[in-house]
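Predict fold of Sensory rhodopsin transducer; 125 aa.
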Amino acid sequence: MSQSIGSTCWAIAEGYIPAYSNGPEPQFTSHETVCILNAGDSDAHVEMTIFYSDQEPVGPYQVTVPARRTRHIRFNDLTDPKPIPHDTDFASVIRSDVPIVVQHTRLDSRQSENALLSTIAYASN
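Predicted 3D structure, encoded as tokens:
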């Protein structure tokens, strides 16, 4: 059983990739992640645009999330059209051609006492 749930436009107002990490890689590499759930029957073609405080937006970064699947994408791994710089504040807008659910997760391992946060993104429609 599958169902189309979510929204086609999401925003994550807060983003930051720490400049360094503490612990074994890749598990403890400090990162930002966008977690996307596509519970529908059609593949989701997703475009992400990254916004900065001191430069023009960059994007779209394009990914596909197959029907009835989830995909976790580290912002650290996005390279096309341009890598996202570490130690820089950013925000993101995620658009899809079908409804999806978006969650934001951060692992900050700059200290040996790691910090992990996760929150649902803002659905704009």
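The chain has no helices and eight strands.
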